[in-house]
Design brief:
Length: 191
């Protein structure tokens, strides 16, 4: 199984502007390093029986840290926000549910898993935002914006959850699933 101690991604769209939301941001992360996934605890599983093509895994992670370059442009509670630079984001008490559809592929007379669809929904208890260099490097505005985002992290999360979940699903698809797809599904079950 690959290590989940440090996971890297090239790019993640964390939020897209929505005119109906009080948080109207275009927010992208680049050169992303994610730590904390190695502390994942599986809470429950469903569908892992012989011949089942739908699986569900419910899991939690106490703390996920994301270090990345960022670009952000938009409005936060109708206040313009713009910047680009380094950011560190701490997600506390991440809860996720992975729904995974598979097909079976015959190889050497055995069934192997082939992932056909992976959906992930996530929720966090709170987040700590640390953007550097917002508003052209204005330190006071950067500090106060980070505080506003952190203090309102549940509302911020609601606007980011869909894109973040899709990005984390890509991590699972790239890091975990190739290992699982190499193992014979038939070898997990006795007749």
């Amino acid at each position: 199984m690959p290590s989940l101690k440090l996971v890297t991604l090239d790019k993640l769209t964390a939020a897209k502007s929505n005119a109906k939301s009080p948080l109207q941001l275009n927010f992208e992360l680049f050169d992303i390093k994610i730590t904390g996934l190695d502390k994942t605890k599986v809470l429950s599983t469903n569908g892992f029986e012989k011949g089942t093509e739908h699986h569900e895994v419910d899991f939690e992670v106490p703390i996920v840290k994301i270090n990345a370059r960022y670009e952000i442009d938009g409005k936060l509670l109708l206040v313009p926000i713009k910047g680009k630079g380094h950011g560190e984001f701490t997600l506390k008490d991440v809860h996720a549910t992975m729904n995974w559809k598979i097909a079976f592929e015959k190889r050497d007379g055995k069934n192997y898993i082939k992932s056909t669809e992976l959906l992930l929904s996530t929720d966090v208890e709170s987040m700590i935002f640390n953007f550097e260099n917002l508003f052209g490097g204005n330190k006071e505005l950067t500090v106060s914006t980070n505080k506003i985002l952190t203090d309102n992290s549940r509302d911020v999360w609601k606007s980011m959850e869909k894109e973040f979940s899709a990005g984390l699903a890509k991590v699972l698809d790239a890091v975990v699933l190739p290992t699982i797809e190499c193992l014979s599904y038939d070898d997990y079950f006795t007749d």
